[in-house]
Amino acid sequence: MFRVSTWLALGSLLQILSLVFLPLRLSGLAPILLLLQRFVKAARESRQIYTKVFRDVRLGRWTAVIPSKRADQKEAGVVMFVLGARVNHPQGRLPANGRQLGNLYDDMWQEADTNRVKWGYLGRTPMLMSTNDEKGFTMIWLSYWRDIQGLHQFSKSTAHITGQKAYQGDNKFPHIGIMHELYYARKDSTETLYNNFPPFGLGATKLIVDGEDGPTLEDPLIPDAKNWSTMFERMKRERESSDEA
């Protein structure tokens, strides 16, 4: 991935070429029209915030609650699995076969989504990129799981094994590094707060809740109550719900 300064230099070069090969008025008119279109669009959308644009934002304060109703209360909680990849090539992702690795990742996430209830896969964030990696290109995904056992089942899935063999055995990715971290939080040990924010992280997952008719998928976000002013009170609220259940 090129730096911003590189893109600016390329833009300057294109402008010079347009001055050489195109009429002066046409060469100057193109960037002027582009800027005008951007300004008009920004002005129009600034009057339609939360109605036409940013409609995914949930206004007010919200918190994500892990349901307490589960067949095995001792295992109730949430697992966060951090998956990362770094391109160690000065020319970015394409020379390092980053697109092929991305396809392998997409297959893994698709299989996890297909087996959501079976493996306890709750969801994941979009790809997150590091903004202070000046030499490489670092990508991170945060995924959420119901328990470690389900995550272990995912590691034995067809898509994961295919990706693992491709990375370790085919020597197609010598310029890509990968990493992962795993965190397990038992019930009453998590706390979230989203204020005028779109569903993200744990708040964008679909929680698996055991019921008499089988597991169901539920939205984890609920309005943050006035008496939950601290993270301790939000965690205590979940403990109280567990006692009532």
TrEMBL record:
Pfam families: Monooxy_af470-like (PF13826). This is DUF4188 domain-containing protein. It comes from Corynespora cassiicola Philippines. The lineage of its organism: Eukaryota, Fungi, Dikarya, Ascomycota, Pezizomycotina.
